[in-house]
Amino acid sequence: MSSPDPFGPLLEYPERSVILTDFDGSLAPIVDDPSAARPVQGTTAALEALVAAFGRVGVVSGRTVSFLRRALPVPGLVLAGLYGMERLVDGAVVLDAAVEPFLGVAEQAAADIERALPGLYVERKGEVSCVIHWRAAPDRGDEALAIGRDIARRHGLAAAEGRMALELRPDVAVDKGTTATALADGFDCALFAGDDRGDLAAFDALDAMVGSRHLRWAVKLAVQSEEAPEPLLARADERVSGPAELVRVLGALGNAVQR
């Protein structure tokens, strides 16, 4: 399948298409206090239009499912939290079985981080992971990375760098790529929108599905910012200037099908 319009096949076969997007930096601007993040105006309406038009619509985020449910109250929206380690199934939060041995370990790591890095904000993501943030103290980035990675090693956790943040999470084979693969399985076309390093795994997954002919068409959409990693931008089929433009594009896709 080839098209001069990257969105053309999605619009031609909406019932056979899946639309997936990240949250932070994609639907919501990055903010100093992660608990204060909110989706940009029009996000709910755009997602509602997509859910009504396409075969599957989901948000794949590093956030917990409980956070996403509050931020995005859209019936029919698939929510995959903690990169897919959590899923919303029949109204209940279901944790991937591979994560269960790690429950509580992130809290121990978070406590160690707070002792070693006083003054930096440590975000707890339930019992599964924790994140060191230095956006409010950018001069402490190198210190946070070194100490955070050492604490991750001591607790048997993986350390994943993000935008002025380091996340310590279970060292399991679950990421945005495995989650995008599962959510796109059985569909013909897929779109994934993201803004950070973690979203590259989803880009890789869509490319692999097209290469293996599990997908006929895929669109990799990058949300630009001063901090967006160059590999993500280089791999993208399309770019948007920020969350507001992404929401506009997604809403236009949903409304185009409904017409």
What would you say this structure looks like, in words?
It is a single chain. By secondary structure, this protein is α/β, with parallel strands linked by helices. It folds into 2 domains: 8-96 and 174-258, Rossmann fold (3-Layer(aba) Sandwich), CATH 3.40.50; 99-170, 2-Layer Sandwich (Alpha-Beta Plaits), CATH 3.30.70. It is built from 9 helices and 12 strands. It has helices at residues 8-12, 43-53, 65-71, 105-116, 141-155, 176-184, 200-211, 230-235, 243-258; strands at 17-21, 56-60, 78-81, 86-89, 92-95, 121-125, 129-133, 157-162, 165-170, 189-194, 217-223, 238-240. The two termini are 24 Å apart.
Structure characteristics:
12 strands; 2 domains; 259 residues; alpha/beta; Alpha-Beta Plaits; eight-stranded mixed β-sheet
Helix content: 25-40%
State the name of the first-level CATH class of the largest domain. Alpha Beta
CATH architecture descriptor name of the largest domain: 3-Layer(aba) Sandwich
Query: What overall form do the CA principal axes indicate?
Result: globular
State which percent range the strand residues make up: 15-25%
**Quick one: how many beta strands?**
12
Mean pLDDT: 95
> Could you name the CATH topology of the largest domain?
Rossmann fold
Largest sheet geometry: 8 strands, mixed
Query: Helix- and strand-based class?
Result: alpha/beta
**Radius of gyration from the CA trace?**
18 Å
Oligomer: single chain
Q: Helix and strand succession?
A: HEHEHEEEHEEHEEHEHEHEH
Order of the strands making up the biggest sheet:
5-4-3-2-1-10-11-12
